[in-house]
Amino acid sequence: MTLKVAVLPEKLRGERQAEKISYSNTGHIFHSTENKAGVRIYVLGPFKAPDQEKAEIKRKQVMITEELLAAGLNGLPIIGLKMRGMQMNPAAKIKTVNISVRPKPFPEDQIEADRQTAALFGITESDERALAGTGPTLMQFFSLITATPGLTDMLKSVIDVPFWSILNSGLKPNIDLRTIPFEKEITGERWSLPLATKIFALLLEPRIAGKSSLLCQLAVIDPRPPFQTSAGVIGLAAGAPDGKGPVLTLQLVATHAAVDAAPLAS
Question: Hey, CA dihedral for 212, 213, 215, 221, is it positive or negative?
Fold first, then answer.
């Protein structure tokens, strides 16, 4: 599968989206917009036999929110590892920290207390910004998968039906994105990246209306270009919460800056 960010024709760009403001419980304010970008998807396959030499090339053009993919998903494991480090420190008097982001400001007394606790854990404004966009970024990533020819049926085989309907409709539900204590840092050598590259593994459980819809293990990296198109995801394994049935696995084979920025067809 190949993805290319494309230049949008003027009539497809639409008006600039209104700015959204979010507030953290440590007093930080985050500004964001959800402007659209075009993505051209090329899929070669499927290959039904090891000796098959040719396969159909499928093409599709979709709209994405580029800023969400640029936010990435590596904020969650970074915060998780910082929390675990504090919990394992026998001299630490405070073992837990709560980081929350919402559309309205928090009370000043709560901000002061939570800011001091976050500082003890080494949680930065950058960490909070990444955490704030995790849910929407994950939805954007899966929406990109649902738009990819050949991957749709694979995803439907492992995902909860209500969650699939939401992804396929483009709705933006209130998803409770739970993390399962599994975060760890892994070396880049296994992924054909420089040894010093920071790669994080994390386990996510998206829940809708209190019901688990999917278990998703990810290998993520800083979503700097050219990793931005995949939201920094370089590997994924997803399956049903009960562990039964098939498992969808994806791995990023290569990524590079495009030599051109061909316009998206109108």
Answer: negative
- Mean pLDDT lowest among 34-43, 113-122, 131-140: 34-43
Burial of 148 (0-12, 13-18, 19+ CB in 10 A): buried
Neighbours of 260 (CB within 10 A): 8
Q: Does residue 266 fall inside a structural domain?
A: no
Q: What is the dihedral of CA 139, 143, 144, 148, to 10 degrees?
A: 150
| 201 to 83, 146, 212, 213, 249: CA distances (angstroms) | 15, 23, 20, 20, 14
Distance CA 154, CA 247 (A): 9
The token pair that represents 153 in the structure block: 């049926």
Length, in residues, of the chain: 266
Q: How would DSSP label each residue in 32-44?
A: E---EEEEEEEEE
pLDDT at 112: 93
Residue 20 sits in which domain range? 2-251
d(CA 240, CA 216): 9
In a domain, 90, yes or no: yes
Domain annotation covers residue 256: no
Please report which helix (H) or strand (E) contains residue 182, including its range: strand 176-186
Alpha carbon distance 4, 2 (integer Å): 7
Q: Which pairing describes strands 57-65 and 36-44: parallel, antiparallel, or unpaired?
A: antiparallel
Full strand arrangement of the beta sheet holding 29-32: 29-32, 20-24, 101-102
Nearest to 203 by CA among 68, 73, 72, 69: 73
pTM over 0.85? The answer is: no
With respect to residue 7, please indicate whether it lies within any of the assigned structural domains.
yes
**Number of structural domains the chain divides into:** 1
